[in-house]
Amino acid sequence: MNLQPITDVQELLKLIPQRPPIVLVHQLLEYDASSLTSGFTVPGEHLFVKDGILQEGGLTEHMAQSVALHTGYSFYIKGETAPTGYIGAINKLEILQLPASGTLIMSKIEILQEFAGVTLVNITVSQADRVIATGQMKTIVAT
User: Fold this and answer.
1) 71, part of any domain
2) CATH of the domain at 129
3) What is the DSSP letter of 68?
4) Which helix (H) or strand (E) holds 133?
5) pLDDT by residue (tens digit) across 36-73?
6) Between vectors from CA 55 to CA 54 and to CA 61, what angle results, nearest 5°?
7) Is residue 21 reached through a cis peptide bond, with omega within 30 degrees of 0 on the bond before it?
8) Low-confidence ranges of the chain (pLDDT < 50)
9) Which of 51, 54, 113, 124 is the most buried (most CB within 10 A)?
10) Residue 135 falls within a domain, yes or no?
11) Which pTM was predicted?
């Protein structure tokens, strides 16, 4: 699918259930049925930023919101409202580095399985072409 990147946060809010001050995605850069690339510039002031560093919980939430963005955009292109979802499980999470304020991080999600509202994905978070976190996440769409 030919996607124009979405960088307007107000447009992104139509695709995810999270609302400020919890929003941790600023860009939808690439999308297809089995993958997505999102971007987030770490702000100086945020619930998950301490001493200028995005904390583990914030990085993990960014990963989850990247998955939610994929789900939300897939519903959007079908003309449907983005659903609310939940994290069912996080596996093999490895955080190699925490990003500093002002840093652009990019997450690539790859869908491994999707069935009956349950999605299993691999997630790789990069900063300047260097992997800073990886993991698997299972999400569940609320019914």
Assistant:
1) yes
2) 3.10.129.10
3) H
4) strand 130-141
5) 999 999 999 999 999 999 999 999 999 999 999 999 99
6) 90
7) yes
8) none
9) 54
10) yes
11) 0.94
